[in-house]
Amino acid sequence: MSEFYNLKVIDKQQLTPESVSLTLEIPQNLKEIFKFKPGQFVIVEKDLNGETLKRYYSIYNSPDEPNLIKLGIKLKGADGFADFAMHQLKPGEILRVSAPMNDVAFDLSPEKAQKILGITIGSGITPFYSFIQYMVKHLPNAKMVLIYGNETLEKTMFYNKLHQIAKQYPQQLKIYEAFSKDNNHGDFQHRINESVVKKVLEKEDTDFDAVYIVGPDDLKKMAGKVLKEAGITDDKLHYRVYS
Hints:
The protein is an alpha/beta fold. It folds into two domains: about 5-100, Elongation Factor Tu (Ef-tu), domain 3 (Beta Barrel), CATH 2.40.30.10; about 115-240, Rossmann fold, CATH 3.40.50.80. The chain contains five helices and eleven strands; from the N terminus they run βββββαββαβαβαβαβ. The protein has helices spanning about 80-85, 125-140, 160-170, 195-205, 215-230, and strands spanning about 5-15, 20-25, 40-50, 50-60, 70-75, 95-100, 115-120, 140-150, 175-180, 210-215, 235-240. The radius of gyration is 18 Å and the shape is globular.
């Protein structure tokens, strides 16, 4: 059973019309407990309206930022905690938070040359964003090709920051965007489907050392099918499924 620690929210920022960033301060006595690697997540616990809510959130900042963790929270359907975070939570709020846990297990070997494919939608970007920030500073021989799906540019978490990184480090990050409700932006004007994945593979080849798919089960099944048909073996495929 997870142990929880009281952490203070020291900053809240609007990321998109449907998502916010929460910055949580790590006290000196908890620094060792909250050391994390890119791709890890925490469980957040909060009592609201007589009910104890637990939510799982990937940490999106780089481990290079000391004494804090940042969580990206997106409002999806009837989610009591996300609604609270969006509309009521203010800096100074105390949340109960678990120690970081393994989730998307990126290879952090600095000397290793690796080509990585990431496929995700919406708030599934958070573990990738943590890794990308770490990668460009510590993994000079790594490259990530990212397929990122959203409804519109306006609803895309970390859009500007991701593109700044891609512009600054073009040999390490290539982004393909699919917007399902935006005909004016992106590389594809529909949701991520078999055609999108196949077209990216045609451009980037299939010589990936690892593939990470973060999203709902239908994305996992669809992308996994296309990748296997393209010759990418099971041992290179890594999944994190959420509803």
